[in-house]
Amino acid sequence: MSPDDSYLALFRRIPVMATLLDQEGCFIDVSDAWVRRTGYTREALRGARPEDIATEASARRIREELRPCFRRTGRLDNVPVEFRATDGSVLELLVTSTAEYDDGGLFLHSLSVFAELSDSARLERRYRGLYHATPAMLHTIDPEGRLTDVSDHWLERLGYTREEVLGRSILEFMTDASRQPLVGRLREVISEGDFRNVPRQMVTKGGEVRDVLLSSHTERDARQAAVRTLVASKDVTERNRAEARLKEAYGEIARLKEELERERDYLREEVRVSMNLGRIVGGSPALQAMLARIEAVADTPANVLIVGETGTGKELVAHAIHTRSNRANGPLVKVNCASIPDELFESEFFGHVRGAFTGAHRDRVGRFQLADGGTIFLDEVGEIPLALQGKLLRVLQEREFERVGDDSTRVVDVRVIAATNKDLEKAVEAGEFREDLYYRLSVFPVQVPPLRRRGDDVVQLAVHFLEQVCREFGRPCPQLTQAQADALRGYAWPGNVRELKNVIERAVILSTADHLRLDLSLPVGLPPGRQDGQGAVSAPQPAPERGGQPTGGAAPFLTEAQMRDQQRANLVAALEAARWRIAGRGGAAELLGMRPSTLADRMKTLEIRRPAGGREARSRD
Fold first, then answer.
1. Is the pTM of the predicted complex or chain greater than 0.85?
2. Distance (Å, rounded) from C-alpha 388 to C-alpha 197?
3. Topology of the domain comprising 276-449
C-alpha cells in the first residue's frame, strides 16, 4: 500500500536526505535533497535496492547484517553506510531507519533518514575503525574507569562481545590480586597520568587468567582534567609460562647434572676400587660350589647375603652377581656400612634436602636413589645401627623412602646384595640385629670360602696378582718357583685374598731384577737363611712331629702347625698386653697394626677365646 499524494509531497520537500522503502527493501520514493545530493532520479531508483548503489563493502553489510537486523527489530540507529553518487564520488552517511505500520499492525514502509559525516566525524569514524581493527589489545576508559570502547583483538583475547563490556568497570575484568591495589583509588591512578609496562592479570570470560603488561595515555581538557584514557595491553601469558618452564627446566638440568656428576665420580671410584681385586680366579671345589650358587641366583630378583671372612673377596662376588643379572646395565652402588658415622647413616642411604640439619648446605642424593634400576651392595651390613634397620626394612619391603627433611615419598627399584663377616644369627639372638631384616636380606645366602680351604687356588691367585702388580709398577714379571708355591700353600692366610695380594705387592717392591723376594714379604715363618740360587725360599722339608724337633738338629723352617702356634702365641700376647680389648686406642688391633675385624677373624680362625680368668695360656696341649 502506497502513501497518499499529500504525504509524498510533504516527504519530498523535507530538507534532509530521506528514502521510503517497501517490505522487500526497494525504493518507493526519495526526497528532493537525496536527488540533488546523489544525482539519481526517482525514476532511476524506483524498484532498485539501496545495495545496488552502495559501495561493495556497504552492499555486503546491508545484505548480511543491516537488513536481517532491521527485519528483526524494525529499527537502525546511526549506522554508517557508503553510497556512490552518479558523478562517481562516495558519500559517507549515517542512516537511521524506522518501520511504519498501519492500525492493524501491517507493514507499510520504512523511512530512512541520512546524515552526511562532517570532517571531524569522518576522522572519528576512521579512527574508530582503525582502533577496532588493530591487532593489539586496546581499551578506552573514562575518568571513573568505565570501558567506553575496546578493540576487536581485546574482545578476542578475553572472549567477550562489545555489548557485554561497554559501560562496565575495568576492575571487573582483573584478578583479585591485580584489582585489590586499585580498589578505591582507580580515579586517582587514572588522573596521575601515563604509565608503561605495568604488570596485571586479567580474567577471560571462561575464567582463564592472562598475564598482561599495561601502558596508558590520558587525554585532558583545557583545565587538565582527565577526559579519557587509552590503554594498550600486551598479553605475555605464554611468554611468562615459557620462562617459568625454562627456569624450571634449567633448575632440573642443574640438579640432574649435579646428580650425574656425583654418580659419575662415585662409580668411577667404585670401578677403580673393585678392579683392584681383579676377577674371580681359581678352580678349587669350594670355589666352584660358590660360583654355581652365583649362577643360580644372579638373574633372579632375590636379595643375596654374602657371608665370609675378611679379605675373602665378598665385594668381587657382589660384582659377579650384578654383572650376570638383568640389571648389569644399571649402576652397582657400594655402601661400606662400617665406615659411616651413626648420625649420617640415614642421609647416606636416602639423601637429604638443603637445611635438613646443620651442615646440609645443599640437596644430596642418597645411595638408594643412585642405585635405582640397578643394585646396591651393603658391605659390613651387620654394622648398621639398630635404629635405622627399620627404615632399611621398609625400603626392602615397600621400595619407597623419604629424604631427610623432605615430605615427599620416592619410589626406587633396587636389588640388595649384603655382605658380612659376622654371625648375624647370633646378632639376632643378642638383639643387635632385627630378625625380620635378617630374613629379608638372607633370601639366598652365598658362602665365600676362606683361602686356606681353596687348595691350589692360592698359587693361581699369586700368579694373577704378580702379573697385575708388575704391570702397574712397570717391572718385569718373574716366575714363581716351586719352592715359593709350596711356601704359599703352607701358610694359613688368616687375611685371605687381601693378605695374599699385599704379600705379593711387598715381594715385588723388595725384589731386584728378576728375583721375587717372597721370603721377605711373608708375615711369619720362613727364615731367610735357606734359599735357592735365585733368592727364593726353598721347598719345605719333611715336617717333624708337632711341637718336636726334626732329626739331625734345628730345622731352618717351621711346619704349618708351628707357624699356626707361633701366630696364635703372638696374637695372645698382644691381647694380654691390651687386657683383651680388641678395638680402640691401645687395643690389640692397634698394637698389631691391623683392622679390628681382621683380628676378630684371626681369633676365630685360631680358636682364641678370652678365658674366664682373663688370661690364656701361650701353649696348647
1. no
2. 56
3. Rossmann fold (3.40.50)
